[in-house]
Design goal:
Structural class of chain A: alpha+beta
Largest sheet of chain B: 20 strands, mixed
Largest interface: A-B, 47 and 53 residues
Protein name (chain A): Auxin-responsive protein
Low-confidence stretches of chain A: 1-107, 132-143, 184-196, 241-246
Distance between the termini of chain B: 34 Å
Strand content of chain B: 15-25%
Shape of chain B: globular
Keywords (chain A): Auxin signaling pathway, Nucleus, Repressor, Transcription, Transcription regulation
Function (chain A): Aux/IAA proteins are short-lived transcriptional factors that function as repressors of early auxin response genes at low auxin concentrations.
Structural class of chain B: alpha/beta
Helix content of chain B: 25-40%
Strand order of the largest sheet of chain A: 2-1-5-3-4
Family (chain A): Belongs to the Aux/IAA family.
Helix content of chain A: 25-40%
Largest sheet of chain A: 5 strands, mixed
Number of strands of chain B: 22
Order of helices and strands of chain A: HHHHHEEHEEHE
Oligomer: heterodimer
Subcellular location (chain A): Nucleus
Chain lengths: 246, 548
């Protein structure tokens, strides 16, 4: 099991870092050669051991610090992923490592507090990257899964589904029906008879707006959907005429 | 003891022309304390910004707020930097000073949005709430709704560092009832549409920090934004640009010609061409903060467009030591030749040459602040492989008004000889991975008459230098040395010779027990912080700090 994937917040050089993180001795040697200027001490003598097997030391909090940044960046749990999605993800990770590792210089070393950038700036720039991936969805570009939360009004807990496992709205609606069949869903569940049925399917898009599911082509929907909400029909009055899902 | 009557003292003070001198004398007498209106307190050492000071070191705001609450209820302004502020402290502040007008917190931590709610609720005459780069715990957007309807006095509101959501309706209401608003910096959660609505109420705005400018918005939204921005005829300074997409750039164009300040340094989503499209139109620009993705080419565009440029900061987008930066000495040379008024510089790059620095020094003799950070420690001149002593030497020789200097790259004792010889007005010097021997530090201590702050890391200066001019430290605000060659013995000698100094040592590995178990006086001290005191050792030092 590989160590937690450090999400490179700038997106420029994750693979070299993670390659080094797995403890590859060759990469570390490369580091020493690169920084070993004549007469100078290797700057990474200050690298704190406590930060362990990663090279993104400046992201990890100093001992005892509150800001558990690395805690926020949890890779999606492999065991929960749809089998196919996970495999693709792994392969793509490997490819990224290989492709990017070649042109990169040897693994980048870390010196505590160097370069002298304020923690605030480092953390903010890091969240830049995180923000641009969807907040309620867990995904990386090019990875094979896109998890979004699904809530249903009145249900005691939420579910999560991987949008990439569906090809169209029909598949999605069937899956949701099955998932939430334990709860009262009205006469037709999530079928097209929204006027009569008790529930309406809505989603939150990238702008944070709540939209009716079904208006845009499936692919566009899948790319902008951040979370799903199965709304009570009575709340959904005014959302527009129901349309058939293609 | 004879006293001068107050009128006489005030008359004497009226001959002091400079603020800093008046501030200094005001520190002399406790009697003047109750009349205090403005208090500025700075806590942790500068290198705390870079995680070199362990957490819980100190810098607590509470004792200051408590003392002020007891002794000077006329307090109107409190400015704090690098301090640990709690919600309880903010609540006490909010309730204790009926005339309180301005709170400025820079690089502070320890408080949450609930503390801000108290400030908003109770400070009836609040004019300024300025939160710069603090680490604030998000406990919800309630705080913004806490400004009472009667509070119409806001002139400056900066909450860019608040991480969480903000209630748009509350924000709009607050802005609508604040006709004096001159400076408004929003956080990332504020949408383009909300921004447009707000700007309809702020015709006098001079400084704006936008919310997010992501590209999910319709063109309509951006058109509304442009219209709203055009109404702000006084707008001179722009920042924010959170998650800004290149799509937003043309919508800012109408403003560009009037801008004197532009901060794009948190926007890695704009590349060289986006940046230059915008900046080439900013012909009045005086202050520019950007990321290094602007590249040398982009800096040439800046140099040819922004003739009034006085301050430039180029931050790295890649924080690794041996990382890639798209800017080199060439960009800086171009800037120096196009912008002779340049006086303040912070420049992160991956290489530099002596020739470039010598050219820059000749082109820009007006530098007051010159901070150069070559990303790789001890990197020599990229063309000649020599140390950069001559280059920095030229800077200190030509820039006679230099007050602040940060040096980097491969440097020998020679650069310190130049600094000691020429940098007569230097007040703050930051050194990292530089020098060969104690002589280097001695040149600085002996030569820089106006030195106030000296901070050194990873440089081979030891007890000889530390003890070479101990009287000097009483003329300085502080000395920081980490990962150098000073020993416990040397620090003890310093402490015993200079009782008016606090000599703090920190060994990070597990605190004080480590120190006692290694009785060797010649064990190296990991971190040393020396500063003047009239009150003796502080009582709030944690375990890992030993005050000799």
């Amino acid at each position: 099991m590989s160590p937690p994937l450090e999400l490179d917040y700038i997106g420029l050089s994750p693979p070299a870092a993670t390659a080094a993180a797995t403890g590859s001795a060759d990469d570390l040697k490369g580091t020493e050669l690169r920084l070993g200027l004549p007469g100078s001490e290797s700057p990474d003598r200050r690298v704190p051991v406590a930060a362990a097997a990663t090279t993104t030391l400046d992201l990890l909090p100093a001992k005892g610090a509150k800001r558990g940044f690395s805690d926020e960046v949890q890779p999606p749990s492999p065991s929960a992923a749809a089998g196919k999605g996970k495999k693709v993800a792994d392969e793509e990770e490997e490819d990224e490592k290989k492709v990017a590792a070649t042109p990169q210089p040897a693994a980048k070393a870390q010196v505590v507090g160097w370069p002298p950038i304020r923690s605030y700036r480092k953390n903010t720039m890091a969240t830049n990257q995180l923000k641009s991936t969807k907040e309620d969805a867990e995904a990386k570009p090019d990875q094979g899964f896109l998890y979004v939360k699904v809530s249903m009004d009145g249900a005691p807990y939420l579910r999560k589904i991987d949008l990439k496992t569906y090809k169209n709205y029909k598949d999605l609606s069937t899956a949701l029906e099955k998932m939430f069949s334990g709860f009262s869903t009205g006469k037709d569940g999530l079928s097209e008879n929204r006027k009569d049925g008790e529930y309406v399917l809505t989603y939150e898009d990238k702008d944070g707006d709540w939209m009716l599911v079904g208006d845009v082509p499936w692919q566009m929907f899948a790319e902008s959907c951040r979370r799903l909400r199965i709304m009570k029909g009575s709340d959904a009055i005014g959302l527009g005429k129901p349309v058939t899902w293609s | 003891m004879t006293y001068f009557p107050e009128e006489v003292v005030e008359h004497i003070f009226s001959f002091l022309p400079s603020h800093s001198d008046r501030n200094t004398v005001s520190l002399v007498c406790k009697v003047w304390f109750p009349k205090l209106r403005v208090l500025t307190v700075k806590g942790k050492p500068h290198f705390a910004d870079f995680n070199l000071v362990p957490p819980d070191w100190g810098g607590y705001a509470a004792p200051w707020i408590e003392a002020a609450a007891r002794g000077c209820v006329g307090l109107e302004e409190l400015r704090m930097k690098r301090m640990v502020v709690s919600d309880e402290g903010l609540e006490l502040l909010a309730r204790s000073f009926p005339r309180f007008k301005a709170l400025v917190l820079i690089s502070c931590e320890g408080f949450s949005t609930e503390g801000l709610a108290d400030i908003a609720s109770h400070c009836k005459f609040l004019r300024e709430l300025d939160l710069q780069e603090n680490d604030v715990e998000d406990r919800g957007p309630r705080w913004l709704s806490c400004f009472p309807d009667s509070c119409t006095s806001l002139v400056s509101l900066n909450f860019a560092c608040i991480k969480g959501e903000v209630d748009s309706a509350s924000l709009e209401r607050l802005v609508a009832k604040s006709p004096n608003l001159r400076s408004l910096r929003l956080n990332r959660a504020v949408s383009v549409d909300t921004l447009s609505k707000i700007l309809m109420h702020t015709p006098n705005l001079e400084d704006l920090g936008t919310g997010n400018l992501t590209d999910e918005f319709q063109t309509e939204s951006y058109l509304r934004l442009t219209n709203a921005l055009e109404k702000c005829k006084m707008l001179k300074s722009l920042s924010g640009f959170w998650d800004a997409s290149p799509v937003c750039v043309p919508f800012i164009y109408p403003l560009c010609h009037q801008l004197t300040g532009l901060n794009l340094s948190y926007t890695p989503t704009l590349d060289y061409s986006d940046l230059t499209r915008m900046i080439s139109r900013c012909v009045k620009l005086q202050r520019l903060w950007v990321l290094d993705c602007i590249s040398d080419k982009g800096l040439q565009v800046v140099a040819s467009s922004c003739k009034d440029l006085q301050e430039l900061r180029v931050f790295p987008s890649d924080f690794y030591v041996a990382g890639y930066s798209a800017v080199t000495e060439e960009g800086l040379v171009a800037i120096s030749s196009g912008c002779p008024k340049l006086s303040s510089l912070l420049y992160f790059c991956h290489q530099m040459t002596n020739d470039a620095l010598i050219t820059i020094a000749k082109n820009c003799p007006n530098f007051i602040r010159f901070r150069l950070c070559i990303l790789e420690p001890r990197k020599p001149d990229a063309m000649t492989n020599q140390p950069l002593d001559e280059g920095f030497g030229a800077i200190v020789r030509e820039c006679k008004g230099l007050r602040r200097l940060s040096i980097s790259g491969l440097l020998t004792d020679k650069v310190f000889m130049y600094i000691g010889k020429y940098a007569k007005h230097l007040e703050m010097l930051s050194i990292a991975f530089a020098g060969d021997s104690d002589d280097g530090m001695m040149h600085v201590l002996n030569g820089c008459k106006n030195l106030r702050k000296l901070e050194i890391r990873d440089s081979p200066f030891g007890d000889g230098a530390l003890l070479g001019n101990v009287a000097k430290y009483e003329t300085m605000r502080s000395l920081w040395m980490s990962s150098c060659n000073v020993t416990l013995k040397g620090c003890e000698i310093l402490a015993s010779k200079m009782p008016m100094l606090n000599v703090e040592i920190m060994n990070e590995l597990d605190g004080s027990s480590e120190m006692e178990e290694n009785p060797g006086d010649f064990s190296k001290v990991e971190k040393l912080y020396v500063y003047r005191t009239t009150a003796g050792a502080r009582g709030d030092a944690p375990n890992f700090v030993k005050i000799l």
